Amino acid sequence: xxxxxxxxxxxxxxxxxxxxxxxxxxxxxxxxxxxxxxxxxxxxxxxxxxxxxxxxxxxxxxxxxxxxxxxxxxxxxxxxxxxxxxxxxxxxxxxxxxxxxxxxxxxxxxxxxxxxxxxxxxxxxxxxxxxxxxxxxxxxxxxxxxxxxxxxxxxxxxxxxxxxxxxxxxxxxxxxxxxxxxxxxxxxxxxxxxxxxxxxxxxxxxxxxxxxxxxxxxxxxxxxxxxxxxxxxxxxxxxxxxxxxxxxxxxxxxxxxxxxxxxxxxxxxxxxxxxxxxxxxxxxxxxxxxxxxxxxxxxxxxxxxxxxxxxxxxxxxxxxxxxxxxxxxxxxxxxxxxxxxxxxxxxxxxxxxxxxxxxxxxxxxxxxxxxxxxxxxxxxxxxxxxxxxxxxxxxxxxxxxxxxxxxxxxxxxxxxxxxxxxxxxxxxxxxxxxxxxxxxxxxxxxxxxxxxxxxxxxxxxxxxxxxxxxxxxxxxxxxxxxxxxxxxxxxxxxxxxxxxxxxxxxxxxxxxxxxxxxxxxxxxxxxxxxxxxxxxxxxxxxxxxxxxxxxxxxxxxxxxxxxxxxxxxxxxxxxxxxxxxxxxxxxxxxxxxxxxxxxxxxxxxxxxxxxxxxxxxxxxxxxxxxxxxxxxxxxxxxxxxxxxxxxxxxxxxxxxxxxxxxxxxxxxxxxxxxxxxxxxxxxxxxxxxxxxxxxxxxxxxxxxxxxxxxxxxxxxxxxxxxxxxxxxxxxxxxxxxxxxxxxxxxxxxxxxxxxxxxxxxxxxxxxxxxxxxxxxxxxxxxxxxxxxxxxxxxxxxxxxxxxxxxxxxxxxxxxxxxxxxxx
Amino acid sequence: xxxxxxxxxxxxxxxxxxxxxxxxxxxxxxxxxxxxxxxxxxxxxxxxxxxxxxxxxxxxxxxxxxxxxxxxxxxxxxxxxxxxxxxxxxxxxxxxxxxxxxxxxxxxxxxxxxxxxxxxxxxxxxxxxxxxxxxxxxxxxxxxxxxxxxxxxxxxxxxxxxxxxxxxxxxxxxxxxxxxxxxxxxxxxxxxxxxxxxxxxxxxxxxxxxxxxxxxxxxxxxxxxxxxxxxxxxxxxxxxxxxxxxxxxxxxxxxxxxxxxxxxxxxxxxxxxxxxxxxxxxxxxxxxxxxxxxxxxxx
Lengths: 823, 299
Prior knowledge:
The complex is a heterodimer of chains A (823) and B (299).
Chain A (H helix, E strand, L loop, with lengths): L2 H30 L1 H8 L6 H31 L2 H20 L6 H10 L2 H14 L4 E2 L6 H32 L3 H33 L6 H28 L4 H30 L2 E2 L2 H6 L9 H23 L6 H21 L10 H8 L1 H12 L2 H14 L1 H10 L8 H9 L29 E7 L18 H8 L2 E2 L3 E2 L2 E2 L1 H10 L17 H8 L3 E5 L15 E4 L10 H15 L6 E7 L4 H6 L15 H23 L6 E6 L5 E2 L5 E2 L6 H4 L3 E4 L16 E2 L3 H8 L25 E6 L4 E6 L4 E6 L4 E6 L13 H21 L6
Parallel strand pairs in A: 1-2, 3-9, 3-10, 5-14, 6-15, 7-8, 7-9
Antiparallel strand pairs in A: 4-13, 10-13, 11-12, 15-16, 16-17, 17-18
Chain B lengths: L13 H20 L7 H22 L3 H14 L4 H13 L3 H14 L9 H8 L3 H14 L4 H13 L3 H12 L5 H13 L3 H14 L4 H13 L3 H14 L3 H13 L3 H14 L4 H8 L6
């Protein structure tokens, strides 16, 4: 057999197998994790996932066929029955997928499958080891590697830093509005931190090599093994601390998954490297070189090796920009940075080969590698690091590599906020196995049958819609004429907020009319659903877009209920289509003697939708000063909404209807280099548009103050009041009617991210917002009207102390309201 | 590449290399994770300035150099306007300098930021009274009552300010509400006085009885009880209480009440003597003037 063809086949098959099985494991874990199940899988964020799940057994069969063919061919050539047995087991496992359908599993079954689908990788790793047994020429201890690995580390540090400096200067510095001096300072500190960590990696390797040196004859084998264990542990730690924290995967499952991922991924890479060494049949000079060999072309010609290394810079820039537009709290960007660094190091190592003459300067090189640490410590001791903390925190949001290192080196975890951060973490994203009883949320004790026909209610929610992109809230907007006209005849609430950043809890909170313990979701949800109680009590016929969240929350089996957008994936919900469908449904029901209700939450401008559609404007209009892909879609939404209002007027329904136009939350469109909303409570995320049209008969009878602080949780009690009920005040955690008499609010209001331990306190009538972030271990104080750019240089201690107490009290009080034990 | 390596003797033993690398890793932990001061230069400068202002003002107050203390204290209130302590110290200094207008201004700032604003009571309303601003004084008494709803003395002051302005019903209400929260001789006496003004002598007597049990020589309670008894026709009992009260606190109202009893008992000379004494103690006592005019010739 041709050796080169064998090697290419082997590498190709391993790449396919590793990608396929690991992806399947990730997918099952995302299905198991409540947050990702609801917002990624259930919401149809990636429509092709459903198709993938359907054809998964066939794809696995194909993948297994490839792997088994390669294994059987290789086993025959060496006569290994064990490997043939493994190939048989893999084939059997693949056949079972047709019956067991792992991609259809939910809950804990999905978790078990996420682990089971790693078994083929384990089997492949074992098979590779068996096939390579006795064929690898492990070199004894050598002193030629230290200088070359040192040079490779230095080149990696230089190129890596350059890559991310380019990204920062091209992409990140501008949104932060940093001066040239601040940019230089940021780059200098970034270089220092990168050199520190790359130097540390070198020292770790030197330690491993020194330990392995105790067995001189098997030093390289030991080095390879110890490094594999080290990298597996590192992989597990990163998966747990970086990925699982970001998707709110907690408990023993997160630990098991992190360990198994780390062990399996590193062991398969290690096995590939060993198998490759067996192909080559030449002595293996060092463990680190062997371990990284599958990620580069260490045997390739110089031009290929240099080309690969140079190509990493544009590849890194491209990956970062692509991942920044669709991210969860910078997770994708940080993961991309990790991947870029790994490949950079592999490519650097491939470029710098061992020296021909023995060297043996380990202590000197180790001390040289520690220079970065010495300077970094010197800066921390004498450079007044606190003066730069605000700058560095901002840079960390736009430069993922620095952000990642700054995050793991941050001392925030052990600072004065440690206790609060722990409280926040323990009381956020409560796991499904923690049973919570629903609270009976009753704004009205008795819904007597109304004497007069109630007005119709239409609640139009646009996911991620920012108020400053609508002309009723921003005079410089000229692309929303219909909402402008609608606002002029309606109540425009200028100071409206959501209690929850992101949809997971903000949409349910509209239906509850209040906040709730941080769990997705307390079931049964009906006792807490005050809006549904009102609609049922007042005999409304209900048209509702049942998105992936409402599917878990509302009653759909009533004869008084008809779904909107049936068979449309949540990610595809388009306001124009929904309103057209609604018009048809209203036509068929408007002569019935019942009031009509409609609720929809369009996804037209959600960050995932815009990214999926290419992140470009959908028309050629001019949107100076605005983000065109977002603004152009809002223009389209505005036209469709205007058409719907015109329809209501033509149908004679407008003057007998309450129309609520709002958003579940806002969004970040590049402020401070951030996009999206998952873990952010920036002013742009928590401020929402809220416009309520009242029928003429209700306009004079009830007083309203549109300048006061309002919340989306006030919508339900307001509708109660507008329908003639007298909603009670249920306390600080629930909304109050925006119409009629209103009890004095408390001095502050608590806000929370739907997906992670990020809490905010809105104070002084909505003028200031304090945010404590137990994901990034930072806190910020915003002047709300000025947006994210006005965040103060550092949070004053009195503000921090005051609001830290409020957050702790808030969590406790909220849990007490729902009879939940706080941790 | 086809190099075949032999075991190469490392000039530095692997144990030593491991120790060096381990020590460097320990240093890494120290370099990156050991806590350092996170106070900004700006904050350090501000703290230094605060410290010097505090020390300067404290030294000046200690040496009774109040004029000198005021400037650093005012600077402190400018730097930390939400720190109630500095406002309090400013008020203290203004008081020592006998500048009521300045003092009341500081106290007004104090109550805006203090966790217990009631600490400025009843000083604020009394300062307004001292400055002759009755309206502000009255409003301050009302605020004081709000700041400390459980402080019966503040409730009494508010009730008494209403009483003096002739707002009997409101004062009665204030006293009545205060008594639901506890017992207080001044409040009970005030309540009794208002009941007398409402022509309810029996209820007034009941109101002050607990006070007299606790302190038989409480002059306010003695006056209310004496008048209440005299209105019920129990003149001798009333006289005894009023004489006991007058002996402790010779007041125009006591003398007038004793005069009324003497007049009712036909002791004209005694009545004239008490009315005259009442007018000596308070020449503006209208009731005493009217009664005294009934006996123009008596001396």
